[in-house]
Design brief:
- Cell wall formation. Catalyzes the addition of glutamate to the nucleotide precursor UDP-N-acetylmuramoyl-L-alanine (UMA).
- Pathway: Cell wall biogenesis; peptidoglycan biosynthesis.
- It is found in: Cytoplasm.
- It comes from Candidatus Vagococcus giribetii.
- The chain is an alpha/beta fold and 455 residues long.
- The chain folds into 3 domains: 90 residues, NAD(P)-binding Rossmann-like Domain (Rossmann fold); 200 residues, UDP-N-acetylmuramoyl-L-alanine:D-glutamate ligase; 136 residues, Mur ligase, C-terminal domain (Protein-Tyrosine Phosphatase, Chain A, Alpha-Beta Complex).
- It contains 16 helices and 20 strands.
- The strands form 3 sheets. The protein has a 9-stranded mixed sheet.
- Strand 2, helix 2 and strand 3 form a beta-alpha-beta unit.
- Helix 5 crosses helix 11 and helix 15 packs across helix 16.
Amino acid sequence: MKATTKYANKKILVLGLARSGVAAAKLLHQLGAFVTVNDGKHIDENPEAQELLEMGMHVVTGGHPIDLLDEGFSLIVKNPGIPYTNPILEHAIKRNIPILTEVEVAYQATEAEFIGITGTNGKTTTTTMIYHLLNASSSNREAKLAGNIGYPTSDVVLTAEKDDILVTELSSFQLMGIDEFRPKIALITNLFEAHLDYHGSRSEYVKAKWALQKNMTSDDFLILNGNQVELRELAKTTKATVLFFATETTEEVDAYLLDGALYFRNEYIMAASDLGVPGSHNIENALAAISVAKLTGISNDVIKESLSRFSGVPHRTEFIGEFSGRKIYNDSKATNILATEKALSGFNNEELVLIAGGLDRGNGFEELVPFIHNLKGLVALGETADKLVEAAKEANVTHIIKTENMKQAVEKAWEISAENDAILLSPACASWDQYKNFELRGDDFIKEIKQIVSR
């Protein structure tokens, strides 16, 4: 950790706890700041706040009192999920109190190099691919996962050495709170419409994502999805050295798909069919990861071996295993139609049974019809089951079954599948009709599969 004095003896408010808030408070405390922690959850139900109190920090819980700002803070470090419309933040902005997220604090506290990854879809998978690629090389530099992937950067920098590389997944919420943050390599997987309830408009969402490169220079590398016209246009406004990846080859593209193979600057890397995870979206993710690998000097042999062995991230087209000749995939993270469309692109529909359905947000599934055409089977569950059944009929799906819950869905999917088929959970819907989150839904799917296998 770098011995920075940037925060020493300054009064700093950490707004909101959860994992990133706790990590930021501890790091700032260690850097010599006078830390006040404010969290909405009452102290009696807040073990994290109790721990920070015992460490000597000032703790205010049970709400966000605006008069707390009268204590004269020089800085606020906020939990990324707290919107800027929160009253205490609105008053802080009026008082010209700087507001950062913990990624910026962590950046100031380490000499380790950053690779920053953001985008709408594919962030976690691409981040994890890059992490495995870097650690598979013979380099003495260690890659560490950090950021929105579940490892608060303020925690990671406590043990990071100067020569380490922090492979950091970054959300739009986090990027709104950076100041000097400057990754050596930055990557934007793609940009689609998302989080409009937080950002207010698509342009503000894109602006937040594009902040990733704001401090980069020509000595730094920015990797962008060349399949998207929007990113090609944005590339004209950065000072960073730009590389493009795309599923089609042009003179401008550095990493691309050609005749079923992945290339980097006319250099053959591997066959796309050798990737350990299926789907056109994972071809894009792999091309992005290959770009990072080549920039960091990793050999083609290491790239091929690592990406061939990569079996995915939990709940993201995750390969669970092959049982009785059936390949099982968990894509519970597919909480919208687009994500399911991308997952389906990696399978032969005539040998695939899809389990889908969940929270009804009022939309239909007409857009999904071309992608489920001639599926061997579609097993629908949850609030959207009836709508999915109608879409399946239109798509000429061979077996169409409506079920009440995951147990029934898995049993029916198993019954209509056979050796050499695949069973894919890719719901195209949020999980909240039956589960608190998509992780619990995916875990339930795996549990039910294992129960059938163990019979």
